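Fold this sequence, please.
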Amino acid sequence: MSKRRQPPAPPRTKAEALARVAQLERQVRRLARQLASSARRADDAVRESAEGQRALTGALEQQTATAEVLRVIARARPLTFVPCST
């Protein structure tokens, strides 16, 4: 069970209130930067995933085509080779 932080005591003076506001504004800017950074990383991950998926799709298509060619070769009649003398 995690402990919850106690809320700060209400400011007693205008200066304390302004200082608290400034502190909260800095915290909001820091969190906004973290959020933007996380969003960029998520975008990068989505892009890399799409690139990987395209590469896998291409590899599967190539493998399927190769398998089809090998099936055709396997069904073909054997070639008769005639020796030639030189």
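The helical segments are 14-75. The chain has a mean pLDDT of 91.
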